[in-house]
Amino acid sequence: MGEVHASPLQTDMIRELTEKDFEEIYNIINLAARADKGHIPDDCYREPYMDRAELRREMSEMSFYGWDEAGRLIAVAGFQPVDDVCLIRHVYVLPERQRRGIGSRLCIYLKELTRTKRLLVGTWAGAAWAVRFYEKLGFTLLPGKDALLDRYWRIPARQRDVSVVLGLEMEPKTA
User: Would you say the pTM of this structure is higher than 0.85?
Assistant: First the structure.
């Protein structure tokens, strides 16, 4: 992968992130996740939301992409092929930069990377705005979310109970 996608402004871009970006990824995820507090069940929310050990494990299992704006990383998203699907994971935008289309553009970029027939995303059931965000991108809520979460994600049972899965059927791409 390792591709860089420049926006029409040429000062903003999407790029694949590396270990050098670790601290920025960690900070973005944890700052942005604070906005979810109160929508995530109290027994599932913690500070930091994602600790360094968990982020290191996640980075070893998936690719992370980020949105640079004027040389500063302001948004991140994980992309993980698993069996016959691809997952969008950990989409976070710095709070002061949210609601400007950056998360959407990152997800659209990840859709373009998808080479499977289906793209999935999981989110908290109580985060109605997140569900609407993905629905605006063409995703639909899927039935059988417990089976999907058990098959494609490694999350605690309690998190599975309070999550939803949205999916998007993809057009076949040629290599």
Answer: yes
